[in-house]
Amino acid sequence: MELRHLRHFVALAEEEHFGRAAERVFVVQQALSNSIRNLEDELGVALVLRTTRRVQLTPAGREFLIGARETLALADQTALRARRAARGEVGHLTVGFVSGLAFGGLPEIVRTFRAAFPGVSVDLRELTAQEQEAALRGGLISVGLMLLPVRDPTLDSQALWREPLLAALPAGHALAARERLTIADLAGEPFVFFPRYLRATYFDQVMRWCAGAGFTPQVVQEAIEIPTLLSLVAAGIGVFLPIEFFSRLSLPGVVYRPVEDAPVIEIVAAWPRGVGAATPPDPLVGAFLKVAGEVLGERRGGGAAGLDPQAT
């Protein structure tokens, strides 16, 4: 039994005439008649009573009509779901993100994506870059948001946005009275920072920046969470060099100041590499990246230029 048999039968039941039904489904009358006969032979029951003037359904035919309509409606819904999935409009998306992105960009992206694609459920997982790469390889997340570089050669990535580093200072610090600093201004200051194993790329970039200014930061206290580090700053234990979006985390006793020639940290989306061009093979990921580009373009006061996919 095929869907075309059901469509032929429903057309015949509603038109009550072989000729009109055949025109409706775009087949010749003999083909429609053969289709109904084959359907009856397969079921082993008569579905229609044929007269010279009209077609009537048998009791079995009336009952079969109910099921045929339900089956065709379900088939149409299934086809629609497939088309919507191909456009990235339905399904489940699991997004990994590094700690801190919740303060910069991620909330706006997720909120806009959910509004645009209400048929997609979004699951957020806070993971380190290394954990995200492993989760992408294992199929545990659909897309990861992390800092460059993406080291895994089996992953592709797309630049999303860039943020400079800035200085977080205790509110009573002498440098807090200045509107802008240089990195050399922080030479000799005690620093609080992440352990290197947790964010090696970020750590090394800061160390190179400071070395270029002629000093090595004296890290007097380490912590793994941004709020903890900023609390240490507020307590006067040291200064910190966070990415700019962390300045959204307003904490009493902490002031933020821009630093001249600060390194710019690039945040990217990464996904498992497909066959061919470096574009996401999963339509949901593609839809998510499109929304991200639009949101971040507006946030930066322009379009999403410069957000074309780039292979890692």
TrEMBL record:
GO terms for cellular component: protein-DNA complex
Q: What Pfam family is a match, any one?
A: HTH_1
The terms under GO molecular function for this entry are: DNA binding; DNA-binding transcription factor activity
InterPro entries documented for this protein: LysR_HTH_N, LysR_subst-bd, WH-like_DNA-bd_sf, WH_DNA-bd_sf
Key words of the record: DNA-binding, Transcription, Transcription regulation
Tell me where in this chain the HTH lysR-type domain is found. 1-58
The record ties this protein, via CDD domains, to:
PBP2_LTTR_aromatics_like
Taxonomic superkingdom: Bacteria
Coiled-coil positions:
none
Family label = Belongs to the LysR transcriptional regulatory family.
What protein is this chain from?
Transcriptional regulator, LysR family
Species the sequence originates in: Deinococcus gobiensis (strain DSM 21396 / JCM 16679 / CGMCC 1.7299 / I-0)
